[in-house]
């Protein structure tokens, strides 16, 4: 390979910081949590932070007191801002993205390295596929998914994977943010089909109803929603 070709193949990476001030004061660097997220300047999905991610990270930050020791799996993690936040707040985190997209799995690992989280496992988990990695997952309390409902053709596969994990972990919750891209898209029928229920969490409840979060203007004016999906407990509901 020529030097020129090598240069062309090297990913161009930019680093963005997300800054979370601690209201409880503290001194020096502990006055805030800084997450450093590498983004690849490439048109491939998952190579940068999507507007839903700062909103889900804000939800985790808001609930950080309960994160210690929780077992979390992020699906479709891309550059993994929510998962990185959870790990920094004391959760045991596994990051995952499509097994067919090794460059996205590299992103997960790169984000971990930038935040000194070298022991966080990164797995290839493709929605809707039952793979050995899915079958051998350890117990999970919370599944994270930021902007994983962005292609209607994938909605059912995302829910099937979540449902599979919840069957093995009946108290698990799926925390997910999505961007309203079309008034015609809905997961209601699929939730019903897979015996799942969903509660919407208004953004104002966790201080995320702002155009700028953690120093990032990404949420902007996008219409972003947060929901928590769980297994239906009462078969009559
Ligand atoms: C819209 S991006 C969101 C990325 C990241 N969660 C965020 O919010 O910044 C969708 C993510 O889903 C991943 N993805 C796409 N198809 C997938 C599949 N079939 N199984 C698992 N992950 C998939 C992509 O690689 C990408 O990281």
Side-by-side strand order of the widest sheet: 5-4-3-6-7-9-8
CATH topology grouping: Rossmann fold
Major beta sheet summary? 7 strands, mixed
Can you tell me the CATH architecture? 3-Layer(aba) Sandwich
- What is the count of structural domains? 1
- Percent in helix: 25-40%
Bound chemical compounds: S-adenosylmethionine
Characterize the overall form: globular
Strand element count: 9
Write the element-wise H/E pattern from the N-terminal end onward.
HEEHEHEHEHEHEHEE
Oligomer: single chain
Overall radius of gyration: 18 Å
Mean pLDDT comes to 91
In percent terms, what proportion of residues is strand?
A: 15-25%
In whole angstroms, the N-to-C terminal distance is 61 Å
Structural class comes to alpha/beta
| Low-pLDDT residue spans | none
Q: In CATH's first tier, which class applies?
A: Alpha Beta
Q: CATH superfamily assignment?
A: Vaccinia Virus protein VP39
GO cellular component, one term: cytoplasm
Keywords: Methyltransferase, S-adenosyl-L-methionine, Transferase
Pfam family, one: Methyltransf_16
GO molecular function: methyltransferase activity
């Amino acid at each position: 390979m020529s030097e020129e070709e090598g240069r062309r193949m090297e990913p161009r990476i930019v680093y963005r910081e997300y800054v979370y001030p601690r209201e409880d004061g503290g001194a020096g660097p502990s006055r805030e949590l800084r997450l450093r997220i590498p983004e690849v300047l490439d048109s491939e999905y998952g190579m940068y932070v999507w507007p839903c991610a700062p909103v889900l990270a804000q939800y985790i930050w808001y609930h950080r007191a309960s994160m210690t020791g929780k077992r979390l799996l992020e699906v479709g993690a891309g550059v993994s801002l929510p998962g990185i936040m959870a790990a920094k707040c004391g959760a045991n985190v596994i990051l995952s993205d499509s097994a067919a997209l090794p460059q996205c799995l590299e992103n997960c690992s790169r984000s971990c390295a930038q935040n000194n989280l070298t022991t966080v496992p990164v797995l290839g988990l493709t929605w809707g596929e039952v793979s050995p990695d899915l079958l051998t997952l350890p117990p999970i309390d919370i599944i994270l998914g930021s902007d994983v409902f962005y292609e209607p053709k994938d909605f059912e596969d995302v829910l099937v994977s979540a449902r599979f994990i919840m069957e093995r972990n009946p108290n698990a919750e799926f925390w997910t943010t999505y961007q309203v891209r079309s008034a015609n898209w809905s997961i209601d029928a699929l939730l019903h089909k897979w015996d799942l229920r969903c509660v919407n969490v208004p953004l104002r409840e966790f201080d995320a109803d702002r155009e700028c979060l953690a120093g990032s203007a990404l949420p902007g004016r996008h219409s972003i929603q947060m929901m928590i999906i769980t297994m239906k407990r009462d078969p009559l509901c």
